[in-house]
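Input record (one chain):
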Amino acid sequence: MSSSKAGSSLLDGSGGIQPISEPKAGPRYIYYRIYTKQGALESNNPIYSNDRFISRIVSRSVAPPHTAACLKKHIFRIEKFELSTKCTLYSSLSDQAPVEDSARLALRGISGPGVSEIDPVVLVVDVSDAKKRSKVTSVEAKDLVEWSPTRRYVYYRVYDEAGEISSKTAFDDTDSCLGRVGTLCISPPYTALSLKYCIMGAEGVSPDRVCNLFEDEGGENTMKDGDTVALLSDNYPGVSKEEPLAIVYALQKDPVNPSEQSNFTKKLIVTVYGTWGDYDHTWHTTKAGEIFHTDGILLKKPYVTDSEFACYAAINSSGKKAFIHQVYSSFG
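The corresponding structure, as predicted from the sequence alone:
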């Protein structure tokens, strides 16, 4: 009996069974992809020879606390972006809303954001910041391994208002107006506007050009900019070349010059950085201090949804006419 008690006391010191402690979560890889609103950017730190758009870091390289802001800063360093780069972070390709900079992320253990190549973290950077990026990678394909992801595409036909036109991504010699883009080339969040921007980028068309996107060639269903597109499902618009969607460009017009607009003479100065135009082409994307010209007439216009906001019609230095929020601007 005494030996039994002695044996029990060795287990937990009080005659009971000592509970088994859970192993601590250790460091792991965090996979990521980088985009602008116009599509995917190659990584400066590629890991696969046949997909230079995906990369990874080790979680222990991210400075504590493990917030979204800390993760972005470390990836900026690896990818040669300036630390001041404007960027939104999504914890998954499927996310429709970005992660707040202050949000804590589970970057250790066997689960969490960026846990695999199939479900990476996504960073969407401003186009102007992408142009300032230093590209120094010298990694050659022979130094990298291949991987075999399932290639998925969005198929589409290209038109202007006068009829079909040739696509720059045509892959069928017998059908030059049929193009396609890889689903992984499209920037989250997966909306009709993101899809439209990616196609326009692939076709070499300015994102400011007016166009409409339809779910099919018949044009029965117009896709609104804010519509969610289920690109991770098995059934989305343009899923096959037999059922392509259609993009129709407005005929080109001469750019509007503010100095030639007798009514748009009032100077309007933007007070904050805003990405409204990234999600609704009828609105401007703006930078603090940027100068526009307006007629000064206060309007109410919808943004993405049916909600209406007080705004001004204004023209930027490139001649684009779109809306600017009243509360984020002031007259100069």
